[in-house]
Amino acid sequence: GYIQAVDHARIVKTACEADAVIELSARSGHLMIAGIAAGRVWPAEAATGSFTKEVEGGLIVGSERTPVQD
If 0-12 CB within 10 Å is exposed, 13-18 middle and 19+ buried, where does residue 19 land? Predict the structure, then answer.
């Protein structure tokens, strides 16, 4: 699906709690493809299952592009 919006506050909070840095390579309007990373995390060890789930929850994905943050 397409990234319709990004909850930056949620992603920053998640990174801070894990003492990690997140670089998103995808942004609103980009098409997400299963298996393709939307970004990178330093240190890589911070990318646990719960961390990844929180970051993914900060990416609002739908079947169409929207003008919200696009």
Answer: exposed
What pTM was estimated for this model as a whole? 0.83
Angle at 17 (CA atoms; ends 14, 21), nearest 5 degrees:
65
> Is 26 in contact with 32 (CB distance < 8 Å)?
yes
Neighbours of 54 (CB within 10 A): 17
pLDDT in single tens digits along all 70 residues of the chain: 999 999 999 999 999 999 999 999 988 899 998 888 889 999 999 999 999 999 999 999 998 887 765 5
